[in-house]
Amino acid sequence: METLDIHRILEKLPHRYPFLLVDRVVACYPGERIEALKNVSYNEPYFAGHFPQRPVMPGVMILEALAQATGILAFCTTGKSAEQGTLYYFVGVDHARFKRPVEPGDQLVLQAEVVRGRGKIWKFATRGLVDGKLVCEADIMCTAREVG
Length: 148
Description:
Shape: globular
Strand content: 35-45%
Largest sheet: 7 strands, antiparallel
Radius of gyration: 15 Å
Strand order of the largest sheet: 1-2-3-5-6-7-4
CATH class: Alpha Beta
CATH topology: Thiol Ester Dehydrase, Chain A
Distance between the termini: 30 Å
Helix content: 10-25%
Number of helices: 2
Number of strands: 7
Structural class: alpha+beta
Order of helices and strands: EHEEHEEEE
């Protein structure tokens, strides 16, 4: 098991502000599963328009945060990183369900398990939780691409 602070996350993922949506990895078991955190702040740029009267994290941003967690898991599993010229692209989502809103002040727990990782195609079962309650679940697929 390994943990990753923001500096190690920046080594793995190509994302940067305002699109980096993983603040910390609390547990990563390469080839198996990951648990990461997203601290949701009122300062997130999307809250100005979604919705001004009652800020709610957009569902697509929750899915993106989950996809970034899967990318970290894939990078930790393969030993590669974006800095080395490999990117994981989000290529599919199935069975996405949103159970409750995510609001400023929440800590979104991002969980992902490897369902299948053959070659360059990966499939993950993911869940997002706030205060131990399910807010989102989805099956996410990613593909690895060498860039450079």
